[in-house]
């Protein structure tokens, strides 16, 4: 069956998303408004009956001085990735993006390849039997995902191993998730390791209070976030970025984005943002102060967010990116160490893929990014 592709209206795109159990928040129309330095477009695949059967939020970033664009679909497009004939989806997409001036296309198929349980990872770390997740046999593998990867290579797509999408955006290949479906909250809590359970109790005894904040509290979040940026050596996003994120995500759906504040004796010690689409909830941004860490505000705030995700009917609580390192001496090891305590799963996606529509410009971008 032939599919055609066209630009979707915002309402058409949102109607398609609402018909799915979940779609990445990066594939919602609102995300194009958050990324104001990119031009955005909603595109859709239309079947013979006129129904929208696939969709994507495309971000276009212009090359300096010429009207040619990198077309980027973070954690998308949302199509039938297990269709044996991927070309009927990808060919019309490439033709459309080329007509829009794209010289290269980058996408992140939302296809899960492998999962590792916390216990499996902890045993490997203790035994020093694997330095990286990829060296550790997974607890669950989807062979169909491997077929998708093989099909993409056969069709001329290149797997991005650079760790970046160019122009400062990148989506993680490895994430950490806590499954909530068919589990009680007691099950979730008992799945935490002993340190997490002790720290949650410690925060409660110390009088840490976790509350939901409003837009006006973003400035408080941002002050703590800047402290975190200095401590963890990253460049913080400015406050207007988070205000824009709040405005456009919650205009799309009042429950799309939430802000949480962990307070002790009236002082905000930790703050986080949470994003919800369908039955998937993401821990998006987190910040914590350098002092009073002994009252464990970060554990308290995560437990509150998990409980709220459960109350919303979420099937998964997603703590977002981790490195795949299992080496305790690696500076990125802390990313997985903290999240392992939730008793969840490390999840590997298919990763990001490139299709050079203009090989000369694509290579020039690669060279430019490698020098940054």
UniProtKB/TrEMBL annotation:
Record InterPro entries: Acyl_CoA_acyltransferase (IPR016181), FEMABX (IPR003447), PG_Glycine_Bridge_Synth (IPR050644)
Keyword Transcription regulation carried by entry: no
Listed name of the protein: Peptidoglycan bridge formation glycyltransferase FemX
Family the entry assigns: Belongs to the FemABX family.
Keywords, sorted A to Z: Acyltransferase, Cell shape, Cell wall biogenesis/degradation, Peptidoglycan synthesis, Transferase
The encoding gene: femX
Domain of life of the organism encoding this protein: Bacteria
Keyword field contains Acyltransferase: yes
């Amino acid at each position: 069956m032939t599919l055609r592709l066209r630009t979707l209206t915002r309402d058409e795109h949102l109607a398609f998303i609402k018909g799915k159990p979940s779609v990445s928040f990066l594939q919602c129309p609102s995300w194009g408004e958050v990324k104001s330095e990119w031009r955005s477009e909603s595109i859709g695949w239309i079947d013979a009956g006129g129904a929208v059967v696939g969709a994507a939020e495309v971000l276009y970033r212009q090359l300096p001085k010429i009207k040619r664009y990198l077309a980027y679909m973070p954690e998308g497009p949302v199509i039938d990735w297990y269709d044996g004939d991927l070309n009927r989806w990808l060919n019309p997409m490439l033709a459309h993006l080329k007509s829009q001036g794209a010289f290269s296309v980058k996408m992140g198929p939302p296809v899960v390849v492998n999962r590792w349980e916390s216990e499996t990872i902890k045993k490997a770390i203790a035994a020093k039997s694997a330095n990286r997740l990829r060296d550790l046999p997974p607890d669950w593998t989807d062979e169909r995902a491997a077929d998708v990867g093989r099909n993409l290579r056969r069709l001329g797509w290149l797997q991005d191993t650079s760790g970046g999408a160019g122009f400062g955006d990148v989506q993680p290949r490895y994430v950490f998730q806590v499954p909530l479906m068919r589990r009680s909250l007691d099950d979730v809590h008992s799945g935490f390791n002993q340190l997490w359970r002790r720290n949650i109790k410690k925060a409660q005894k110390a009088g840490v209070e976790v509350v939901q904040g409003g837009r006006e509290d973003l400035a408080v979040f941002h002050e703590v976030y800047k402290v975190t940026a200095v401590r963890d050596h990253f460049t913080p996003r400015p406050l207007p970025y988070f205000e824009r994120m709040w405005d456009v995500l919650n205009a799309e759906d009042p429950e799309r984005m939430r802000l949480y504040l962990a307070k002790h004796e009236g002082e905000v010690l930790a703050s986080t943002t949470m994003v919800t689409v369908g039955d998937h909830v993401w821990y998006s941004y987190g910040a914590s102060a350098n002092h009073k860490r002994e009252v464990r505000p970060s554990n308290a705030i995560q437990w509150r967010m998990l409980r709220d995700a459960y109350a919303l009917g979420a099937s998964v609580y997603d703590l977002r990116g981790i490195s795949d390192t299992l080496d305790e001496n690696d500076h990125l090891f802390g990313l997985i160490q903290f999240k392992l305590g939730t008793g969840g799963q490390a999840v590997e996606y298919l990763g990001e893929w490139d299709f050079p529509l203009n090989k000369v410009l694509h290579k020039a971008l690669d060279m430019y990014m490698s020098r940054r």
